Amino acid sequence: MAGLGGQPILILREGARRERGKEAMSNNIMAARAVAKAVRSTLGPRGMDKLLVDTIGDVTITNDGVTILREMEVEHPAAKMLVEAAKAQNDVVGDGTTTVAILTGELLKRAEELMDEGVHPTIIVQGYRMAADKAIKVLEEMAKKVSTEDRDLLEKIALTAMAGKLAGAPDVKIAKDVVDMVLAVTEETDDGKKVVSLKNVIVEKKTGESMDDTELFQGIIIDKERVHSNMPKKVKGAKIAILGTPIEARDTETKAEISITSSDQFKIFANQEKEAIQKVADKVIATGANVVFCQKGIDDLAQSYLAKAGIMAFRRIRKTDLKKLARASGGNIVTNLDEMTQADLGHADLVEEKKVSGAHMTFVTGLAKEGTVSLLLRGGTQQVVDSLERALDDALHAVAAAVEDETLVAGGGAPEVELYLKLREYSTNFKGREQLAVEKFAEAMAEIPKALAENAGFDAITKLTDMKSSHEAGMKTGGLNTLEGKVVDMWAIGVVEPLRVKTQAIKSATDAANLILRIDDVIASKRTEQPPAGAGAGMGGMPGGGMCGMPAGMGGMGGMGMPPGMM
């Protein structure tokens, strides 16, 4: 609403809500901090799990930060920014999402304290940016080199990434498998840089047996069985046809009706259809293929023809698997059978169907091109297998980042403690209010080791003091051993992380916090849809009692201590 010559002018549509200044900032900060608080207890190897139930009743038990944030279905726009920052961390690095959420929440908490003391948000944003730049430089100075020859160190990275995401201690065998998979898909560019193509890693899950029965294969696993029982179960020296088109009679381009008035006419029609299907099958047989992977359907009659020709065929193959198969076998994905030639076939030493946990799976090994690996994950229940898959994904990305960047830092809260000390020292270089922002940034960094200590059941202040003392005494890699509660050299016990995980976490958290701090005006239009019958109205009749029709809760986050007014 604005006034012109004493006459009120309506700017926003009727029913819109606007929050300005301190109220808008406080609500945004409160919402983001509530999300950060929800995942804080999951940090570290002894973090707690969350049980998440979706709208259809499916249960997920995890302490993986990005999984929790995705399943929470956050509604508040400022809280969504924090979730997006965590997702960005996951996309870029694949690990460190919980750290991003906690750090963002702590930066906002301390920014609010500064604003209460009269420090302008712009000054805080500026101070945070300078502190983040300095923190990244300090981390780069702390980093140590690693190469693909250091298998033992790479396995320790995988174990560190998986710690806390599995029931019990991480499996050393799986850590070895992770390193094998990453090295198998690592290529060196012309300028000497290493590039890891994790898209060439295939992970298939099957319940049954135990985690120890997880197997690594040099090749491709296809979760399909042959389409006809008379087809061979095993083909050596496979010549593979990879089809993106169905093996069936083509439909006519125009619709037509056929009137059959006698059995002879029906027989003629059936024979014509049979001949059409046989022609299609013959096109595949003529190429000399003895294995067929088809993205679409294979007609029942065509299955019989292929089986008589001794061809092993599979249908309804995922397009992603088809692409991996084409790349690894040296074949081409054929979309027109009329143009298919022998040159389009891929090659493999062996294609074999095996029975796994009562279901049939197909294994393609000895492929023409190396660099494709598959892992068959096993676990007693679906929840165990899913949890193992999430842990494996973190480990794969962590080892891949270490291989590409060839740099590591210690874990266990050691880098954050060193950053706390260095940033406090760095803050003395400023005379203005930026000094306060840099100091608050340092305090926020210290919350990571404090959360590690809290989640392990120790006194956070005492353990943080012990870690600071070790760093001041010269042990720059001193961190918390969460099993014993002692401050030890993280390098000595093999708790290490890729440098990229830490630097990206600082960048993501700082960007998210600064973005939220720069918002001083929230304008939201009223929803046009009508509230459901019987729904309560709050805030001037808006549905759900939330801001501009948004739900008062955050998608199942009740009980998190979120004040109703922040939504």
UniProtKB/TrEMBL annotation:
<dbReference type="GO" id="GO:0016887">
    <property type="term" value="F:ATP hydrolysis activity"/>
</dbReference>
<dbReference type="InterPro" id="IPR012714">
    <property type="entry name" value="Thermosome_arc"/>
</dbReference>
<dbReference type="InterPro" id="IPR017998">
    <property type="entry name" value="Chaperone_TCP-1"/>
</dbReference>
<dbReference type="InterPro" id="IPR054827">
    <property type="entry name" value="thermosome_alpha"/>
</dbReference>
<keyword id="KW-0547">Nucleotide-binding</keyword>
<dbReference type="InterPro" id="IPR027413">
    <property type="entry name" value="GROEL-like_equatorial_sf"/>
</dbReference>
<dbReference type="GO" id="GO:0051082">
    <property type="term" value="F:unfolded protein binding"/>
</dbReference>
<dbReference type="InterPro" id="IPR027409">
    <property type="entry name" value="GroEL-like_apical_dom_sf"/>
</dbReference>
<dbReference type="Pfam" id="PF00118">
    <property type="entry name" value="Cpn60_TCP1"/>
</dbReference>
<keyword id="KW-0067">ATP-binding</keyword>
<dbReference type="GO" id="GO:0005524">
    <property type="term" value="F:ATP binding"/>
</dbReference>
<keyword id="KW-0143">Chaperone</keyword>
<protein>
    <submittedName>
        <fullName>Thermosome subunit gamma</fullName>
    </submittedName>
</protein>
<dbReference type="InterPro" id="IPR053374">
    <property type="entry name" value="TCP-1_chaperonin"/>
</dbReference>
<dbReference type="InterPro" id="IPR002194">
    <property type="entry name" value="Chaperonin_TCP-1_CS"/>
</dbReference>
<dbReference type="InterPro" id="IPR002423">
    <property type="entry name" value="Cpn60/GroEL/TCP-1"/>
</dbReference>
<dbReference type="GO" id="GO:0140662">
    <property type="term" value="F:ATP-dependent protein folding chaperone"/>
</dbReference>
<comment type="similarity">
    <text>Belongs to the TCP-1 chaperonin family.</text>
</comment>
<dbReference type="InterPro" id="IPR027410">
    <property type="entry name" value="TCP-1-like_intermed_sf"/>
</dbReference>
